[in-house]
Amino acid sequence: MLMSARLTGDESALWQAAARVLDANWTGTATVPSPGLYPHQWSWDSAFVAMGLARHRRDRAERELASLFAGQWSDGLVPHIVFNGDLARHAYFPGPELWHSDRQAGAPNAVRTSGIVHPPLHAVAALRLHECAPDAEASRAFLTRLYPLLAAQQRYLACARDLDGSGLVAICHPWESGLDNSPAWDRPLGALELPPRAYAPARLPRALPTGEDYDRYVWLVTLLREAGYAPGYLRDEHPFAVQDPLVNATCVAAAHALAEIAEIIGADPVPHRERAARVHDALLARLWDGETGCFRARDLRAGRPIPVVTLATFGPLLDPELPVPIVRNLVDLLLSARFAGAAGYPVPTCDIQAPAFDRSGYWRGPTWVNTNWLIWHGSLAHGLTVVADLLYGSTLRLVRQSGFREYFDPFDGTGRGSHDYSWSAALVLDLLA
Ligand code: 9WN
Fold first, then answer.
1. Is the pTM of this model over 0.90?
2. In this structure, are residues 295 and 184 in contact, taking their beta carbons and an 8 Å threshold?
3. Beta strand spans in 254-372 (E)
């Protein structure tokens, strides 16, 4: 365990508790998001977990990413789930039988996977691994192996997911955002026309999101699978296509991280810098709403912005070149009574004053450690120490008070969802390091 000597007694206890969670959730090749509820490997979870493992068990951090990329498809798609083939068929719904990656020519043979993506934070994670590596040479060798896979991941997103030629990446399923039941998806999901009884009714793994949401999620997967996950189908026919500010901000951050990785290993950083600039320009041109001072997701099928303001509006703080007036606007909004100003434990996932806000509704109101970490990380890059300190303090307060829960009540910090959640533990290690 690489625990820093400068930690106080209380911080060391927190560190050790977080490390124990990661140890318990380690399967031998990767980390499950939580014991029981999520028994496979999830993509953006692994990026967060790798950053924590880098501070605790560096060997495992590399294996975590290697295990995820073993699920990469030949076109570069990194699936949002890599299934553990040793588990019983019904360990998690929906399992591999819904996705049928085994029938896709480009999917790997050795593992079964989903067929959609997650926010691509893996280059950011890989760079963070390098920054805290005890052995720079060994770390460079790891980055050299991972680099082509990370570059292919970005190429897939730039080619197959730029559905309108704007430079922005579109998600084709709410799960791709990582914020499954965000109120931002209510309109595009509500506009779907589900044929009666054309698919098996969803078996719910838990109370949230609602059964109706699950039916729509499953229906979207059915459409994707039947179309062979083909880029032409995604572009021209798939009924759910949304450009989200948080997802696109992670693309900008990933492109910058890839450029730095390219420099470290002696490859050409220029294409990655160009890619970052393209998504940056498109974010500002298409998703920034100057009148109300926030970023909004855009529903490509309806051809209009989505009105509800969620935490995704702060995602572009991950873009190091975000113009200062926009950064100021976002900080004002973040500190206002719509977000941190009225929440004892910020940052709530949805504008507190929006009708859709629900303090215990999964991604419709609660505070999460991973989104706090992203805003903290972005704030530091812009020198926003007041915001960064606020998030650092409130995130540690949450886990001290309620443990490494999946998500938390933004007003009183009550823990909700599963216990011993991996990214809550991993990112606390990163914060404390
Ligand atoms: C669907 C694993 C994942 C997270 C997501 C979170 C939840 C899955 C689910 O769990 O999604 O992919 O079953 O609801 O929303 O962000 O990656 O922790």
1. yes
2. no
3. 288-289, 294-295, 298-299, 304-305
ipTM for the whole complex: 0.99
Q: Which residue has the tokens 């399967």?
A: 27
CA of 37 to the centre of ligand 1 (A): 10
Please say whether the beta carbons of 95 and 57 come within 8 A: no
270 SS3 class: helix
**pLDDT tens profile 401-428:** 999 999 999 999 999 999 999 999 999 9
Rounded-to-integer distance, Cα 168 and Cα 281, Å: 9
CA of 176 to the centre of ligand 1 (A): 9
Which residues approach ligand 1 with their CB closer than 6 A?
Answer: 33, 38, 42, 44-45, 80, 175, 178, 180
Ligand 1 atom closest to Cα of residue 114: 12
Nearest CA to ligand 1 atom 16: 178
CATH placement of domain 9-158+243-283+306-432 = 1.50.10.10
Q: 25, 34, 38: which to mutate for ligand 1, most atoms within 8 A of CB?
A: 38
**What whole-number distance in Å separates Cα of residue 94 and Cα of residue 13?**
37
Write 230-239 long-range contacts (CB < 8 A, 24+). 231/159, 231/160, 234/160, 234/161, 234/163, 234/170, 234/172, 235/163, 238/172, 239/188, 239/191, 239/192, 239/193, 239/301
How much distance in Å is there from the Cα of 180 to the middle of ligand 1? Answer: 7
What span, in angstroms and rounded, lies between the C-alpha atoms of 99 and 109?
Answer: 14
Q: Where are the domains of the chain?
A: 9-158+243-283+306-432
**CA gap 279, 28 in Å, rounded:** 37
Which residue among the candidates 62, 64, 176, 180 is catalytic per the annotation? 180
What are the pLDDT digits (tens) for 255-266?
999 999 999 999
